[in-house]
Amino acid sequence: MRLQSKLLLMLIPLVCAALVAIGSAAFFQLRGNIERTQVSRMNTLLDQLALQVQAKVRSAEANATLFASGYLLEKYALVEDEAERYRLLHRPLLRAFAGYQNAYPDYYELRFILPDGYEAARRIVDHDDTAQPFDAAHPLLRKLAASGDEAASMFGLNPDNGELSLYAGRAVRLRDSGVDPIVAKPLLRGFLVITVRLGHLHQQVAQPLLGDEGKLFVTDDAGRLLLGDAAPATVLAQADRHLLSRAAAGNVTGRLQWLGTEAYLGGRELGQGLILYGALPTSVIESATAPLRITIVFTTILTIVLFSAVLFAGLRRLVLQPLRRLQAVVDQIGRGQLGQIAPESGSSEMAGLTQAFARMARHLAESHEQARFLADHDSLTGLPNRRLFQEYLDKALAFAKRRGDTLVLLFLDVDEFKNVNDTLGHHAGDELLQEFSERLLTALRSQDVVGVSRGAPGEMVARLGGDEFTILLPVVREPADAATVAERILEQLREPFVINRQQFFVGASIGITLFPHDGDTVADLVKHADLAMYHAKHSGKNNYQFFAPDMNAAALRRMQIERKLHQAIGQDAFELHLQPILDLADGRVVGAEALVRWRDAETGRLVPPGDFIPVAETSGLILPIGDWVLSEACRVARRWRDGPMSELRISVNVSALQVESGQLSERVRDTLHQSGLEPCRLELELTETVIMASAKTVQDELQQLREMGVSVALDDFGVGYSSLNYLRHFSLDKLKIDRSFVRGCIGREDQRSIVRAIIAMAHALGHRVVAEGIEDDKERRFLLNEGCDLGQGFLFSRPLPLEQFERFVLENAVDRPATTALQRSAH
Q1: For residue 604, what is the domain's CATH number?
Q2: Within this chain, do residues 570 and 542 fall inside the same structural domain, yes or no?
Q3: Which one of 206, 351, 481, 715 has the lowest number of neighbouring Cβ atoms within 10 Å?
């Protein structure tokens, strides 16, 4: 079977089914609209009639109250003699009734009935000659007698004319005029009763509802038909009553036996047990939708025939021939001949499909190119990544070797990046790296190609990952050019970075290597640039360093120290030395600073703290070492509790990593609990750099330490980024003046001025002052005269092992003033 026949056999049934479904949906939608409109009209009529009847009830009750309080009626009711009452007041009362009926034509019966049920006066329009006296046992009279002064009403069939009417009335209660009106009680004198004709309701019920077949009827709550086509007082069947009760609550569709047809029902309560119903036969809806059904069926059949004819005629020209051309295009794409695809002219679907295949081929090429770009570039900054950098560096080295050029590699690490990342989150860190990359672009000369290759292979800036960047300068005349580039970069970084509306000062540590002077392979150049960068970071950050061969030895030394530190932590190879802290006023030893010492197990000698402490901090080993120092210091101080050294306070240095861990206060609490040391005898020392780097964490930790009773001292004050605002807000007890100020205070006036200012400021803030590095007695006397509280240094004692420290303290307690003991300890 040919493709054309297959398509016709498949498409025509689908089209027919779709058109039939659309026609059916349209028919049922329109039929539903007609149905809702007709039912809504019926409900609107029911609402209007119900409101009119209820308004007539309220008006009749109000008028009954008004008529009952009329002067003439009250006079009539108070005359007890029937003959006299009839002779004097009967005709005037009837004239008053006539006036009321002229004003309200629907009030066709007005009666005044005595309490015993006797009809004393009445005026009836139209059928007075056939009217019967009002029933003395009428439910309305009982209702009025029980209602007090309130009017009452009810519906009922008038026995005089058989009409459904409204009865409204009010009891007439009056005081006897012959008795003192103050003490007399109102007595029931009779009832005023109005019979109201429901003419409008009768008229509406008599008319067809929304056509010739709709009906209105009224029943009471007992199911008696009071107004409608059937005979009055006809009792409906139980099934019909159940259906009508549902209709009174909402619109329903059901079959009424007495109507004999299926109908839409609606009901409204008129009050006093009377319910108005509307019945709209479904045949009304069917009659209204019959023309619509014929129109939709005819339109659907005609559309199917026309569409099939057009489909059959155009299928060959619009589908089969373009398919053959499209097959040729697909064959070209399959053979990879993307550039040889001839564009299809025209705006037909097949032409569009052919054009789409051409666009697909182009997008495939672009996607392949984009994938290659993403594989070679950093997604955050758009700079080349480590893979592309190494590939370019390898090409640049080959190029430089052939031409004998000097190649420069700069290795950059962002200073204080971790501070921004930890303080504001990773999003802020990403924003910082993007701004850092842009400043690199600004800092480089036009011939320093950034991020893309322009000329010699390998000219680029790349992001290796994290906060590490490299700059490749493929051709420089002399090493000073590399220094110029580095200085220009540092100059660009002096401006603050604004992240989340906060300013951060971020620098860079830059390592520089040169080819062929520092290496001739990619691995050597990268390794040496990394070593130079590491040396720049440990030389104060925010500077650049050229690689030097001795950096290899220093790096190897650091690696050996780190390896031995790992072993020392497990072998308990650390010692605690204590440096006395003295009261400068009387020379008493009041405390000690706990200092860690490490004895190398291989050499048996103590390793200088300046050699292993920086390695411990960069490797993270400072955390277990710091825990050991804290635990050992608390244990030692606990030993002194029962002796002459019971009042000594021991000070422990805290590193930045210990604070940033967020567990410092918890570790201190656990250590104090395990050792049994009183918190007031422990003091923690933090440097300004630690406070500035982790201000929020430090503030929280210090607050918890102060609540425990542990005191805190600010160590090396004056050499960091001092901030009076931090001193005001942080919970500190002491300031320790850095030894660099103490050493020069004798020979230099500016140093003495700084020391005086620090002491005065600390005392003004309520802090005690400790001077570090006191080495001669002139410095001690100067500090004492300026009001410095405490001091430590080689003048008094070097850091001592535990036993020597205890002996020093005992000797110091005996030999005062302090200078005598100090002079002895110096020998």
Answers
A1: 3.20.20.450
A2: no
A3: 206
